[in-house]
Every structure is written in structure tokens, then in C-alpha cells.
Amino acid sequence: MMAGMTGLVSQSWFRWVAATAFLCVFPFLLQPYELDLYRKLLFWVALAVSYNFLFGITGQMALSHFAFAGIGGYTVVILLTQVDLGLGLAILAALLLAAVLAFIVSFAATRLEGFYLALATLAFAQLLTVVLDEGGTLTGGTGGLTSYSLPAVFGAKIEGPWYALVMVAVFLATLAILVRIDGSWFGRACRAIRDNTEAAAAMGVDVARIKIIAFTLTSVMAAAAGMVYAFFDNTVNPPVFGLENAFLLLFMVIVGGSGSHAGAIIGAVLLKMTQDILEPIVGHYHALGFGVLVVAAILFQPKGLIGTWDNLRARMKRGKGAK
Amino acid sequence: MTTARKSLIEVSGLTKHFGGLTAVDGLDFVLNEGEVLGLIGPNGAGKSTTFNLLTCGYPASTGSVRLDGEEMLGLPPHRIAARGIMRTFQHNMPFEGMSVADNVLVGAHTTMRSGLGQVLLGAVAARAEERKARIRADELIDFVGLGEFRDAEVTTLSFGQGRLLETARALAGEPRIMLFDEPAAGLTPSECDRLSEIIRGIAGRGISILLIEHDMRFLLPLADRVVVLNFGHKIADGAPDAIRSDPKVIDAYLGEAGGVGAASGGKDGVRNA
Asked: Where in the sequence is the domain holding B141, given as residue range(s)?
């Protein structure tokens, strides 16, 4: 494992640079409609990566992830347009609000596991949509907030493919942070809690503390993604941050392979693109296809698509070894 | 010999009632520094209850457990680990989604000093600590003889290998005290021999050990001193040889396995009792 460490490091650096270059150049090659799909796809991928850390790695079956994206998006818009804060302050304040709310929810939820955590966070997500629906002029009610726009940053309007780069940055930052802490004592403690809470505690892992940190960190990441989303079409409305999308996010992680960063990305890309292709053709029935996919994944390959890929690679390696 | 040693854990008047049943009744014993102490007794003697009181943050009915003179009864498990007490589980409890090496690294959790911020920024100290932890985990995996399984999924290990993994994982926390919960349970005779050897090696590193066990044949050659429980009471406390010939101990075991003599006689009776 130690051997070839330097080779591994430079290889992983090369991968990061190549991925960044691709993600940054690609939006400049796209037509406006494709560009819209691209940045929304990245939004989903970013959310799937942080949700995978919460659900797939720490084992917390929370359904509040999209709610936190909504809190980020709504808060930044409200602070900009109704409180007249500057962009930087509005972003900071929105992140802080998301962190405080996430801390409160996770603090209350540390005593809950599995089913009950899902219920509590589901209630939180429902509560948020009610607040957004009934928020009057503050939240714009069921129609949400519209006709605002991103203020100029240092005199420059960030638009089109340039704004897509903001989403690229948020996605890459999310991924880089989570990959790094996943490879440390913190990530191992999270996986240990997921696999066996009692044994993790006996090894000295402060289960409640790690859960609260993981929940707060990933929820703030969701809020950051939600903020960028708010200026895609310059509109935010309650249904986007409701339960349907929260479940779709869960499906993405399960189908891709929960616990794996690559799996979350693959799951999000596949399901989001399927939705984009199927929805114009079959309308709302596309959800049926997702349901079948998820049931199939749980029944036949709990490690998701990435698990299937790993198995294939292992088989090919064995095949080579036999020759 | 034992009187000269410094006491690490002092259990006094430990009592636990479950409804009308008294599982442990006024138990007193001491674990001395550098000692291998065996806690034995027939089924239902209160061994597991005692173990749980020591490690699981169970509330006791009365009594105290002091570590270096400080009360540790009722501390949550992670705080007990942080005080240098690591344990194994009778029914192996591996982290099933992780490799053998990562399982052992979780055991090193309390030894990791770098904060999340340092990890995030890739601080030199954090990287050095991670490297050191990995080297140490590799050493421990070799120490228990699982070297060839280092990168394997833990689900591929046999039950006996799983027990060895538990041992390496607990050692990774650099404990002062190791608690083994029925380590011989479920092992084949050759696996028992292998584990005995490893436990001797751990004691040789100066780590104090408390073994809870009902397999006399496994325990007596290993222990420096043995505490015998029956129906929640301590009925004997002394060197293994004295325990072997103690009439009260023989009495306690007679009912179920034909006496302690059978243990040294090589019959399987006591092992399966």
C-alpha cells in the first residue's frame, strides 16, 4: 500500500486537473439549452456527492438535504433583495443560517437512528415547504421568488457559461473536501458508525459528535449548491426543495453505489439525464422507471453501479492472472 | 508479588440488580499494572454483567469502578476508550464495509491528534500522523498474523481471523488496559493456541489485561491471577494453581462440568460448559 505512493499522488493530481479542465471548458461549447441542462446536472451531482457522505458513508438516512439547498437559495435571495445586503455578506449569512439550522436538527437527531431519523428529517423538510408556501411576501408564497438577478461582482456580470463555472467550483470544492476527510480518521469514524455504532464507540469514536459534524458540514454544502441554483433561472419556488427531489437524490446515491464518491456522481448523472430525456416523452411517469431501477439495485446489487464495475474489474484481473 | 504492583482498576462493592435478580453482588477486585487477570465463573455467574459495567456505560445499582483513583463507572464507551481501555467483543463486531487495514485504523481513533481543519488543509502534521498510523496498523496486522488479508474486505475473514482482527483493532488504540470478552468462545483448539500466544505477546508489551472467560483450560495457563465468580459473588481470588485446588471453585464448577480437574485433564467438558 505504501509502495508507489508518490506515483499514486501524482496520478490523482493529474485526474483532478484533467477533470477540472474538462468541466470548465465544456460549458463554452454548449448551446443555451444544453448549457442549462449542464449546470443543473452539476447542481445535482454536487448534492449527490455531499448526500452520499451523509447517507452512504456516515449511514444517516436523512431526507432534509434538499431542504438545506432550499434554505441556502431562499436565504441568499431574500437577503439580497429584501434586506439589501451585499453579495458576500448575503452568502456568508445564508451559509451561517444553514449551519445553525443543521446543527439544531442534527443535535436533536443524534438520539435517532434509521427509520426515526428519516421521519424527523422528513418532517423538517415538510415544515420548510409549508414555511415557504405560507411565507407571504418574504418567500413569495407558492409562486416563490422571481425577477431578481445576481449582482455584479467587482463590476462584472457573471452570465452564461461563466456562471456555470461557479457551479463547477462549488461541485469540485464539495468533492475535494469530502474526498480528503474521507481518507482521514474522520472518514473512517463515519464509516465505522455506519457499519457498527457500538463497536465504533468502543474504539473511542464520539458517535454523536461525528454525526453532528457530518450532518452540519454536508448540509452547509447543500446550502452552497442551493445558492448557486437560485441564480440559474433567477427563480426559486417551494416544489424544487420538496420531498420528490429529496427522494430522487436518495435514488441517485443508491443506484450509483452508496458510500462511493464515484458512484454518487455516476448515479446523479445517469438519473438526471434519464429524467431530462424521459420527462418530455412520458411526463411524470419517468418516476416509475426510477422506482424500478432502485428496487433492482437493492435486490441485485446493493453496492450499486460502481459495485458492478468493481466486480467486473476484479473478474478481468483474475482472468488475466489465470493466463 | 502482586502486592508490590500499582493498582490500575479498583472495583469495589459493585452490584447490579435486574428486577428481582442480582446479577453481580458486592464484587471487589483489583487489576494491577502489568498483570493478566482472569475473571471466570460458570454460566450466569455475572461475568458478562461485570464486563458491561466496566465498558458500556451501564448504570450500576451500587458500587464503584476506579481507574487511577478516578470513578469511571457510567462513563460512555468512547470516554472509556479515551482513558486507555480498549476491548474486544465476544461476538466479533467488525466494520463490514471496510478493509482489514481500515478496521484496525478505526481502533487508532483515540491516538489521532490532528483536527479536521488540519486534515482539510493537508497540514504536514496531519499527513505525518496518518502515515505513522498506517505503518503502526500494518505492524499490528502482522503481529496478529493477518498480513495477507491487509487489503481484504473483512467479510472474507473466518470467525477465528475475525477475533484476531478484533485484537489488532483494540491494540491500535495503544491501550494501557485490554479487556477480552470471552476471547476463546467459538475458536477451534489451534486458534485458541494462536490467540494465547498473542495475548502473551500483548502482556509482554507491558499492557495490563483483563480476560473474561469460562474456558479454564484456555485461561489458567495465561493468567497471573484469577478471580472466580459464582451467582454474582466472588468466591476465590488467587494464583491459578491455588484456584485449581480451591474446594469452593471445584464445587461451583462440579454441577456443570465434573470439576476443575477436568480442565487440566484435557477433556472438553469445561470448554463447552
From this structure: 95-159
Closest Cα in chain A to B173: A203
- Is residue B164 one of the residues assigned to a domain? no
Closest CA of chain A from B266, distance in Å:
35
The answer on pLDDT for B56 being more than 90 is: no
Is B62 in the same domain as B192?
A: yes
Are B263 and B182 within one domain? Answer: yes
Chain segment A155-211, per-residue pLDDT in tens: 888 888 999 999 999 999 999 999 999 999 999 999 999 999 999 999 999 999 999
User: Are residues B257 and B237 part of one domain?
Assistant: yes
Sheet holding B7-18, edge to edge: B21-32, B7-18, B62-67, B70-71
Q: Which residues of A touch B (CB under 8 A)?
A: 1-2, 177, 180-181, 183-186, 188-189, 191-192, 194-196, 198-207, 213, 259
Give this complex's ipTM. 0.89
pLDDT of residue A185: 97
The answer to whether residue B167 sits within a structural domain is no
Write the CATH number for B68. 3.40.50.300
Please state, rounded to an integer, the average pLDDT across all residues of chain B. Answer: 89
